[in-house]
Amino acid sequence: MTGNLLYEGKAKRVYQVEGTPGQLVLAYKDDVTAFNGEKKDILPGKARLNNAISSHIFQELHERGIRTHFIKKLSATEQLVHQTDIVPLEVVVRNTAAGSIVRRLGIEPKSALTPPVIELFYKNDELGDPLMNDDHALLLCDVTHEDLNAMKAQALEVNRQLIDLFTASGLELVDFKLEFGRMAGSNNVVLADEISPDTCRLWDLETRENLDKDVYRQGTGDLLEVYEKLMTRLEASL
Amino acid sequence: MTGNLLYEGKAKRVYQVEGTPGQLVLAYKDDVTAFNGEKKDILPGKARLNNAISSHIFQELHERGIRTHFIKKLSATEQLVHQTDIVPLEVVVRNTAAGSIVRRLGIEPKSALTPPVIELFYKNDELGDPLMNDDHALLLCDVTHEDLNAMKAQALEVNRQLIDLFTASGLELVDFKLEFGRMAGSNNVVLADEISPDTCRLWDLETRENLDKDVYRQGTGDLLEVYEKLMTRLEASL
Q: For tag attachment on chain B, is the N or C end more exposed, with fewer CB atoms within 10 Å?
């Protein structure tokens, strides 16, 4: 990608391209990290898989009436999106207990969370992305009550659509993380960032085997093989 | 106290007394603990001070129209209260940044929090009393949305009344922790537990010196002297 590098995160670079004001290019990286960057590797092919899966999912959400920053897939590892100012919080939706909530609150692993639990985390690597409540977000994240309600309502709608999408591929949507942003000239929050096995926990509906980044976190499988398998299953249900 | 010991906590024993159904005796202990019990001491005289200060504050709240479990002070170290089933969450109100919120969210110490920030913590020593959001409380604490809203509204009203009370004694109410319970036969949550320098941060309005348990946590002063000074200041403004 040639363009003006605006931002480099752990998994993506963000470029501004001349002649397309208000639009950005997300270029996925082959880097994989876990535990706030304590474990990291470069896995050639990961960029292509994350871009393919996230593009597929955002395209599906678009067709299901959900407004997002996504415009189109540009190349194997890049996509074009509307430029947004990212709200510095992660919105996590949990349908089944796994990961940090199990340790933090002593919840039985794999238990159903009904209704789904929404959590907000402060996007701040230095602080280790701490859990926040609404009052904290209002204080620190330049959001209003209306923004928080809109993000939570969108997150639950995305949850309903993703459950529908993944169930068709024989997958259980355990939990996932969303980020939102504001387009220039608009106060509305719109779904941004990526939705991929880096940001979702996905289990086989029957065996409950992981088809997500937990295989890397826990060292229980080959990330590229698992992401390839996931992509194949998603494509098969089109 | 002779009676049936129902519960022993870090700072109080709770007794059921024959002939007074629906009522309990709270007997304060001379024990002081900090950091989830990692630091502890016995300070003879602390029970008397906590009982005097908490009784004084609950009496003031009663006179200002706030419903609580408090009935009356029984003796130097004991008080009579209505029996409640305690909701297993701590409701913290913060007017000024101090303590865990500073470390957790990187907020500038001593900065004003406007409007006040409310936090919920899961009463669970084994898990270290973790921060919770409303969804977690609904899942784990046998409460409804209405209970949470009622507890938060009561916490903010208590905050207004306590600010008024403490300002008259030249004190800044930095933050405090409340607990709520349900009386037998009622679904309403009512203010319970204690309000004392064990559960509040109180600073001198001018010098911002601590008049609370932080002198013990931080080893910066004599707890009994400080609690005695606080009691004297509260009584002087009657």
A: C
Out of A117, A122, A140, closest to residue B135 by CB: A117
pTM for the whole thing? 0.95
CA distances from A96 to A112, A113, A219, B106 (A): 5, 5, 21, 30
Rounded Cα gap, residues A233 and A57, in angstroms: 13
pLDDT digits (tens, 9 = 90+) for B100-130: 999 999 999 999 999 999 999 999 999 999 9
Torsions phi, psi for B108 (to 5 deg): -60, 125
Q: How far is CA B55 from the centre of its chain?
A: 11
For residue A115, say if its preceding peptide bond is cis, omega within 30 degrees of 0: yes
Each residue of A88-130: pLDDT tens digit? Answer: 999 999 999 999 999 999 999 999 999 999 999 999 999 999 9
Cβ <8 Å between A136 and B105: yes
| Contact predicate A53/A197, CB 8 Å | yes
d(CA A156, CA A153): 5
CB atoms within 10 A of CB B103: 11
Q: Closest Cα partner for A57 from A224, A206, A198?
A: A198
Residues of A in contact with B100 (CB under 8 A): none
